[in-house]
Amino acid sequence: MIDEIHTPDSSRYWYADDYESRLLRGEEPRSLDKEYVRRWLANDARWSGDGPPPVMPDDVRVEAARRYIAAYELVTGVTFTPDPRDPIPRIAAALGAA
């Protein structure tokens, strides 16, 4: 639970400013979660989860990253700064295991 609670992977985040008006018009609310990727897999790639996953085009990956960064910035109020260090030692250091 600790690695997913309140993340775009396990929670749904919608923009509040037009949430109700979009629902009243029968539209999906604008979101900042993984639903974008799920829709691409189901609709564009026609992948149901069986067999090997399709190769995701760069534009889909970049848009997913943009949405996750936007979620981070909106929730925290802090500008996202990428950390280019190798993830394994970075995670170990953050956990005090380095």
Walk me through what this model shows:
This protein has 98 residues and is mainly α. It is built from four helices and no strands. The chain is globular and about 50 Å long. The two termini are 23 Å apart.
Listing every helix as H and every strand as E from the N terminus to the C terminus, the arrangement reads HHHH
Count of alpha/pi helices? 4
Q: Assign a percent range to the helix content.
A: 40-55%
Rg computed from alpha carbons, rounded to a whole number of angstroms: 16 Å
Q: In percent terms, what proportion of residues is strand? A: under 5%
Detail the poorly predicted runs: none
Distance between the termini: 23 Å
- Let me know the number of strands: 0
Q: What do the pLDDT scores average to? A: 87
Largest pleated sheet = none
Outline: globular
Q: Helices and strands: which structural class?
A: mainly alpha
What does the secondary structure layout of this molecule look like, with pairings?
Blueprint: H1 19-24, H2 35-44, H3 58-76, H4 87-94
